[in-house]
Every structure is written in C-alpha cells, then in structure tokens.
Amino acid sequence: MNNIFVYCEHENGRVADVSLELLTKGRELADTLGCRLEAVVLGHGLKGIEKELAKYGADAVWVADDKELSPYRTLPHSAILCGLFEQEKPQIVLMGATPIGRDLGPRVSSALYSGLTADCTSLVIGDHTDNKSGKEYKGLLYQIRPAFGGNIIATIINPDQRPQMATVREGVMRKEEAKTPAKGELKTIDPRKWMKDTDLVVKIIERHIEERKINIKGASIVVAGGYGVGSRENFRLLFELAETLGAEVGASRAAVDSGFADPARQVGQTGTTVRPKLYIACGISGQIQHTAGMDESSMIISINTDPEAPINKIADYAITGSVADVLPKMIKYYKQNSK
User: 21: part of which helix (H) or strand (E)?
Assistant: First the structure.
C-alpha cells in the first residue's frame, strides 16, 4: 500500500534502459518517502527477472509471465495494470515516455481517474500548500517538464488523486545499480485474474521494428551544432569531424527548427539527453533548454564566435572562432597526430 511502482518494459530478453533508469530514480524517491519500491513486468520468458531488477533497488517484483503478453498489446497490459493498481493502491507510478509508455500510461491513468504528467525531465519529492484553502500536503511528487515549446519549466503536482503518474524520457535519469541490492521479492501475477477474453481479440499477425539509425544517446563523443553553424551545408563539417573522431552528430533545437539537422539528432529538454565522454558544441549559444540535455558530459568543448556565450560557462575548453575556421583545423591536426 502507498508504495512506488515502476512499469518495466521487456523486449527480446532484456529490460529497457529507461525502465532501469526509473528504478534508479524510484529507489531515491522511495528512500525519501520511506516506502517500498516495486517493479511490474508483463511479458513471456521472464524467469529470473526479479534478480536483475533487485540490483537496481526493487524491493518487490510483480511478474505476469504469459505468451499472450508478448509482444506488447494495449488491452491485456492495461487490464492487468489497472487491476493491480486498484488492488495495491500505489502512491506513485512511473513509466518510460516510450511508444509503449505513451500508449499505456494515458489508458491506465484515465481508467483510474488519476491524471498523468507526460515527458518529465525531473522528479522530486516536496510539500505543497494550497493558496485557496490553506490545506497542506506532504510528500507530493513534483513532476517537472518543459512546457510551451520548452520556453518554461513547469512543476506539476497531483494533490488528491492517486496514483501520481508520470512518464519520463529515456536518458534523462541516471542508470545505476543500487549500492546495496534490494530483496527483489518475487510476486507472481495471474494474468487471467484481470484479463477478459475481449482483451485478447486483437492479434499480432506480423510485426516489424525499424532499428534506430541515429543513436546519439549511446555515443561516447558527440559533435553538436547550433543555429550559429549557419546552414545545413555547413553541418557537413560537423559530419566530417564526427567521422574523423568516431563520433555522432547532434544539434540544438534552433538548428533542427531551421532545417539544418534531422529532429532525431536534437539534444536538450525537448530532444535527447546525452552524457558522452566528449561533447563538442559548435555554434551553440547554450540556452538552458539545450544545456539541460548535455551538461553532464565528462568534457565539453565550445566553439563560438561570441566569447561571452552562455555555453562557455559550463565548457571545460572554449574556443573563440567560427566553425568554418576551427573545424577544418581540428580535423587536420587530429589526422596528423593519430597516424
């Protein structure tokens, strides 16, 4: 009762990274609230899954193992989650802001009349006083996310309805094994307890998943360009440097909106959060919407014509100059020194 639940996605024999990130964050929230962290996994071939999730702090792992639950289908998964949450009464439920989470989360929250904050970038426990009634609330989940196109950061609370539900983007939270593994108590779910025959009417006849072609989240080096790069043609220099370094190319929202780069390359609050060993920011001013998605990089190099650009305040090295002048020299000298 009143514990924190994390819905863990399971595909092709592995748990999604975003689910492990949420367990890491959920462990922190549970410790703050003094409650248990519980994971929920629905799928097939899940033997031993509780041991893996215990490493990330799950005190209990609810498992429904049935061939009808893999691959994912909306109706059976939502029926089981609604039944489980009505039975267990969690105070917080977290899901990844993935295609599955974005499909499943709204359906479950609507059925439970709980509300849902989507695409959160931060989660914090805090108190709240209602200005109208003066009522005080303790230990609420602050659900923090960009709003109005990323121009402001909104903090959303759900004082009265339970569970407090949120989806979180992949890569926003750190994925770390707990210092002391939790017990990972296995709790078996009988899926037929809550599934109805009508939930199984839709059958998956053929399934095709397009592999992600751009993976800036997993890159150890990212060469990112902003509006200051000037054009899509000038981005070719970034691709040339990235090829030389074995890196991936990223972009700020301004560069993407201007058509300089593909949306899949966007780094920041409204894009992908990255933590590479080296981040080279080319022509990026460094607004908070962008830096929130890359400021945990191990090393940051800024290349900008403006020596007072905000990005320089968080950069380890700042190079004052135009991208057109600096990048060809970086490429030239790196090739010379790597022979």
Answer: helix 17-33
